[in-house]
Design a protein that fits this description.
single chain; mainly alpha; Multidrug efflux transporter AcrB transmembrane fold; 2 domains; about 70% helix; about 0% strand; SSD domain-containing protein; transmembrane; membrane; transmembrane helix; SSD
């Protein structure tokens, strides 16, 4: 059952991305390399929320009533976060840069479709798996199960874990500081245009003339 829920939770955002790519292709919008980032932005946080509240209400015997309670508890937060994320990327769709505009449009569509698939695909799977659960069994979140994740959690909240986290953060900031100090500020205008752009040819010509002028002086 756990394997099935995990697969469905991961499949929902992937299905949303695939549907988004298909819809854009259907309307004749070309695929670009920036869209490869879309699957990593369509997360599974909504699936985790659904699963957490589903187990939290395990004392409700009726699956329909249990799902109604879950949707009432987290439905508004899922809707608001999905809507704001989609609108944030939707604003980027009006960018004058075509590649960035298409990327934002694709991601906004994928985030909204992920919200739809979480409610229409993952939520029904929770109902289907309820038949394998023991009736009226309350999930005990406070039970100390000695697993790898439990030991890891105890280490994180311990004094040594917090001290280690502080040391790692300090090392990251120190490394970042010295790395920035060694960076050289250079700008090559020719790299901002496609290789076949006429502007790139003109920039190459200007560079040749500029080099000749410097050699003269």
């Amino acid at each position: 059952m756990q394997v099935l829920l995990t697969v469905v939770a991961i499949s929902s955002p992937l299905l949303a991305c695939a549907t988004s790519f298909a819809l854009l292709g259907w309307f004749g919008i070309a695929y670009n390399s920036f869209m490869c980032l879309t699957p990593s932005l369509s997360g599974v946080d909504d699936a985790f929320l659904l699963l957490h509240h589903w187990r939290k209400n395990a004392d409700i015997a009726d699956p329909a009533e249990r799902m109604r309670r879950v949707i009432c508890e987290i439905g508004p937060s899922m809707t608001i976060t999905s809507l704001t994320n989609a609108l944030a990327f939707g604003v980027g769709a009006f960018s004058p840069t075509k590649i960035m505009s298409l990327f934002c449009l694709c991601t906004a569509l994928a985030m909204w479709l992920d919200y739809v698939f979480e409610l229409s695909v993952f939520a029904p799977c929770l109902l289907l798996t309820s038949r394998w659960e023991k009736e009226n069994k309350k999930v005990e979140y406070g039970s100390e199960v000695h697993t790898v994740w439990w030991r890891y959690s105890k280490l994180i909240v311990s004094k040594w874990g917090r001290l280690s986290a502080v040391i790692v953060v300090v090392l990251l900031y120190v490394g970042t500081f010295f790395g920035i100090q060694k960076m050289e500020t250079t700008f090559d205008a020719s790299k901002t245009f496609p290789p076949t752009s006429p502007l790139k040819c003109s920039i190459d010509l200007v560079n040749v003339i500029y080099a000749q002028v410097l050699a003269f002086f």
